[in-house]
Design goal:
With 134 residues, the protein is mainly alpha-helical. The chain has one domain. The protein is built from 4 helices and no strands. Helix 1 runs parallel beside helix 3, helix 2 packs antiparallel against helix 3 and helix 3 packs antiparallel against helix 4. The chain starts with a helix and ends in a 15-residue tail after the last helix. The structure holds protoporphyrin IX containing FE. The site of protoporphyrin IX containing FE has 13 residues, from helix 1 and helix 2.
Amino acid sequence: MPKISHLFFRAGILFLIVGIALGLIMSMSQVHDVVGAHAHINLLGWVTSAIFGGYYALNPAKAEGMLPRLHFWVYTIGVVIMSGALYLLLKGNAGMVPLVAGGSLLTAAGVLIGAWVIFMPATSLGGVRAQPAE
Ligand code: HEM
């Protein structure tokens, strides 16, 4: 599996652990105040990261070069900032709004880099096109 897939899966499983912890705390306390943070950590942090990791594992030629690494770091840092700030916002810290916005924009930028990787041919990203079987 390409290194970038490992990175996406490692980040994703850490998001899932945090997301599930928030879910358990909400369930046990019967206080569902941070449901927005819980849902975004699980869906953006775990599900989407795992899909990106799976994409690179299925298309190893696309995993080469700078762009996949930029994709991983911009996206993951964006989700960390956005979901952390969203959690604090939902806990009553109104000053978190700019950080939620900044993290959201970074996350969206990461998705656009991912779209670029998906649409571009592997050769223009620095990958090697697979040779046809003889
Ligand atoms: C042990 C694991 C989990 C627990 C204990 C848990 C618990 C909860 C709780 C208590 C709520 C609030 C429900 C409400 O206020 O209406 C919730 C909402 C939600 N959870 Fe989880 N959850 C878990 C895992 C997950 C996972 C893995 C995902 C996604 C991959 C997820 C996605 C969502 C979403 C999208 C909502 C919002 C639903 C809505 O607002 O209608 N949860 N969860």
